[in-house]
Amino acid sequence: MDPKNLFPQKKSGHKSNRLIITGSIVAVVYLGTLYFLNESWYKQYPKSRFHFYNDNNDWLQMDKAGHLWTSYQEGLAGVKLLRWSGVKENHAENYGSFLGLLLLTPYEILDGLSAHWGFSPGDMVANLTGSLIVFSQEKLWHEQRISIKFSSHKEIYPNDTFGVANLLYGTKFTDRMLKDYNGQTYWVSINLKSFIKEPKFIPSWLNIAFGYGINFFNFYDNNNIYREYYFSLDVDFTKIRTKSKVLKTIFSIVNCLKVPCSAIEYNRKERWKFHSFYF
Q1: Same domain, 136 and 256
Q2: End of a domain among 144, 172, 192?
Q3: CA-CA 20 to 30 A from 275: which of 24, 51, 90, 201?
Q4: 225 with 267, same domain?
């Protein structure tokens, strides 16, 4: 494809410079993330020949939710960056939506070269799904009315008398956030005003959110392995009106996270549970 066809007519001059800046930003962030994951994850495990591994039944699919969220957020960022670069709307949606799939595939190859894991077809399906969620909404509405969000907290293990959790998941916040699936929650956050125009008193930024988490670290008790389902309120920061470009940028970035709020939880062990504050 001729690069000139990416831009609207009579606007391909300075806009192409933005595309170069966009490509540079993506490259720097991607290489930095790759280095971080290699240092905090892959480096401590032995390598092997490339191989496949079916891990679809592991961790109650919590890792698949993580792949979907990452792919979704990277695809959304891809669309926004291409729009900022001046690329035609159609091309920004078509190509930007699949940035997550493009960026995450090398990680799957690294898994395939790790003795402790393998190339996971299930991970690739989750990566593709995240990209398709971005793509389908951009094509339908040219916006994201349904967002995939993330929250995390440091899980407390009162029965862990030998400190096994610290050995498995680390003690640093970044290590726990990355490795401890028990403290993670993934959310489907739906903007009410996008679907319900009336009544008018509903704020344009108000979302309802449905979350998924797990309790998996059993400490020798299989009854402590179960799924967790959540309902809560959320905020779509991109719907908050402001003339400040700085605030718009900040709102766009933090919108990948679920706002801390009260939440209702359901799980098979404790049944219904209310959290006055949950993140």
Answers
A1: no
A2: 144
A3: 201
A4: yes
Question: Which string of b and e fits 193-210 if b means at least 16 CB within 10 Å?
Answer: bbeeeeeeeeeebebebe
Per DSSP, the chain holds a count of helices (H) and strands (E) of: 9, 6
**Domain boundaries, position 64:** 1-144
Close Cβ partners of 74 (under 8 Å, ≥ 6 residues apart): 99, 100, 103, 104, 130
pLDDT digits (tens, 9 = 90+) for 188-232: 999 999 999 888 899 999 999 999 999 987 655 667 889 999 999
Total domains in the chain come to 2
**Where a domain ends, among 99, 121, 144?**
144
List alpha helices for 54-98, DSSP H: 62-84, 89-96
Do 5 and 112 have their domain in common?
yes
Same domain, 9 and 121: yes
Q: 225 with 172, same domain?
A: yes
Place of tokens 């991607």: 30
Q: Residue 29: CB partners within 8 Å, gap ≥ 6?
A: none
Decide: 266 and 220 in contact? Cβ < 8 Å: no
The model's pTM: 0.87
